[in-house]
């Protein structure tokens, strides 16, 4: 397992720890000129859950993969929070914002992996 895959595993566990839903991993490695290699996209039901998911992802990534995000943006309103881990970008949405931006379809050429919800 390479470093990016280990980080994605930790990010996924962090999302699931706070009951984040509809996790999708978009593999962008076969697409030229992308800003990163992977997107991890998920959602929470409220701004407070989105914030809790972001904090959990930070903790799991730091403890499990020894990685800190370069930047986190969007915490003020917590409708769409982006976390930059260089090779991996994490997007934590409220359902309405996720439906509006629909990142999964923007990267139609990416290999999408759906992670089943835990409950």
From TrEMBL:
Keywords: Cytoplasm, Repressor, Translation regulation
Gene Ontology CC annotations of this record: cytoplasm
Subcellular location: Cytoplasm
Keyword set includes Thylakoid: no
Keyword Coiled coil carried by entry: no
Entry superkingdom: Bacteria
SUPFAM superfamilies from the UniProt entry: Nucleotidyltransferase
A biological process from GO: negative regulation of translation
InterPro entries listed in its UniProt record: Iojap/RsfS/C7orf30, NT_sf
GO molecular function: ribosomal large subunit binding
Biological function: Functions as a ribosomal silencing factor. Interacts with ribosomal protein uL14 (rplN), blocking formation of intersubunit bridge B8. Prevents association of the 30S and 50S ribosomal subunits and the formation of functional ribosomes, thus repressing translation.
Subunit structure, interactors included: Interacts with ribosomal protein uL14 (rplN).
Family designation: Belongs to the Iojap/RsfS family.
Protein name, as recorded: Ribosomal silencing factor RsfS
Species this chain originates from: Candidatus Bacteroides avicola
